[in-house]
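SEQUENCE-TO-STRUCTURE ENTRY
===========================

Subject: a protein chain together with a token-level encoding of how that chain folds.

Sequence line: the amino acid chain in single-letter code, read from start to end.

Question of interest: how does this chain fold, as expressed in backbone structure tokens?
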Amino acid sequence: MSISIEDPVVKIDTRVKKSPRWKIIFLNNDVTPMELVVHILCRIYGFSTDKAVHTMLQIHYNNSDVVFVGSKELCELKYEQTHDIIRLARDPLQVLLQPDSEDN
């Protein structure tokens, strides 16, 4: 009598799971100098002066704009760096950190 043993079928999920993305949104107000917004966009987010001015105007005319989308960790870092400058400037600029709904 012989017994046959079959190899078990193992299924491996090879799909790469994307980490959720987060976004940083700047809100417009009537107090924050436009130069401060441009400075932050250049210094923290690496924008060119032209891109920073364009984004600042988008924030101004649309009352808000997404300025950065990335991993949660990187967004948290940039959010804190942004708030450090805002605190030093004693400015009321509001910045939001939110999950990016575009991922859903």
